[in-house]
Each structure stands twice: as C-alpha cells, then as structure tokens.
Design brief:
Layout (H helix, E strand, L loop, with lengths): L1 H9 L3 H15 L1 H20 L5
Length: 54
C-alpha cells in the first residue's frame, strides 16, 4: 500500500516526467539505436582490419 501511494505522489514530479519521456523515446526508437550501435562497431572493426595499402 505504501509503494502504491509513493507512485501516485511521484507521478507529477519533474524527474518522473523526464525519466518517463526518456524511457518512451528509447522504447519507440530501440531498433534505430541498436542499428546505430551495431553500425558503429562494424565501421570501427572494418577500419582497423582494412588498413592494407595497395
């Protein structure tokens, strides 16, 4: 019961709203963020492995 009242009190707080906004942004764009991270890792690996001069 105490936890439920704490959640109800904190829903109007600025920090709660900021965290909710960030969580919703990440939730909506999780595939784009994952693709960006995988692309960066692949680009770094390819750059290090393809330093062969012709």
């Amino acid at each position: 019961m105490l936890l439920n009242s704490l959640v109800l009190q904190s829903q109007g707080d600025k920090a709660y709203q900021f965290g909710y906004d960030i969580g919703s942004f990440v939730g909506d764009n999780i595939y784009l963020i994952a693709g960006l991270l995988i692309g960066l890792i692949v680009a770094i690996v390819m750059r290090k492995n393809l330093k062969v001069k012709p």
